[in-house]
Specification:
Elements: E1 5-9, H1 14-25, E2 29-34, H2 37-47, E3 50-53, H3 59-72, E4 78-81, H4 102-112, H5 114-130, E5 132-137, H6 150-169, E6 175-182, H7 192-197, H8 205-218, E7 224-227, E8 235-236
Parallel strand pairs: 1-2, 1-4, 2-3, 4-5, 5-6, 6-7
Antiparallel strand pairs: 7-8
Helix pairs in contact: 1-8, 3-5, 4-6
């Protein structure tokens, strides 16, 4: 990681912030990309990193952030596409799919799926030539069903399929695209109802960040890695062939 350039979206909090911290501690130069200017700027000051305003739901904003990273720090060597939301805010009760508003639908798809597309669209033209790695945060929800938030589940399933297909398109280059699927992580998007019910024992974000750094540096192209608990090793999912 020393002297490498790392761009992280959703970097002002949670897993993204820990990836920024661990990358910086390893000697990387970090671009902290997030819509939360206050938290992002504070973290950038802490790490002597660069804060870049970035709304992943906007292609123009994502493309501008990548350009700013290249201008301020240099071409990214590693990219972590991490921004994500659930259908309703953590303090709100779960709602049935038929109760989801159009605005709620557009927001979750815009961040979770379009945000990954925008990140790939902005970085692939540069990184196909120079190589490196792009690690995308999906979720265990992308491999199972989550009845209390079907749209979150759908976006994470889609992200895994998108990442694997892009990875197949980069075979023969020095660019690797892979996926991390966390189980429960102690971040701001965990619904309050799950916390109150004691339905999960979330991992600290630092545990997931260590997996992300390993994927960025050592992960295979097309790898889908799952991390379920702090005290258990991560494992790679053997997915069916894309042309099956």
């Amino acid at each position: 990681m020393k002297n490498k350039i790392v761009l992280v979206t959703g970097a002002a909090s949670g897993i993204g912030a820990e990836v920024a911290r661990q990358s910086s501690a390893a000697g990387a130069r970090v671009a902290i990309c997030d819509v939360n200017e206050a938290a992002g700027s504070l973290l950038a000051d802490e790490l002597r990193a660069e804060y870049i305003t970035c709304d992943v739901a906007s292609l123009a904003s994502m493309a501008k952030a990548v350009d700013e990273c290249a201008n301020r720090l240099g071409q990214p060597d590693f990219v972590h596409l991490n921004a994500g939301v659930m259908t309703v805010p953590p303090a709100d009760p779960f709602i049935a799919l038929e109760e989801v508003s159009e605005d709620q639908y557009q927001r979750i798809v815009g961040v979770n799926l379009a945000g990954v597309f925008h990140g790939l669209k902005a970085t692939l033209p540069r990184m196909r030539e120079t190589g490196g790695a792009i690690t995308i945060t999906a979720s265990i929800a992308g491999l199972i069903t989550v009845p209390f938030d079907p749209l979150y589940t759908a976006t994470k399933h889609a992200v895994i399929g998108l990442a694997r297909s892009v990875a197949a398109s980069t075979e023969g280059t020095d660019l690797r695209v892979n996926v991390i699927c966390p189980g429960g992580v102690d971040t701001a998007i965990i619904p309050d109802a799950l916390r109150a019910a004691g339905a999960m024992d979330p991992m600290p974000p630092s545990v997931m960040a260590a997996e992300v750094l390993d994927l960025l540096q050592n992960g295979s192209n097309g790898e889908v890695r799952v991390k379920m608990a702090t005290d258990r090793p991560a494992f790679q999912i053997q997915m069916p062939e894309l042309d099956a």
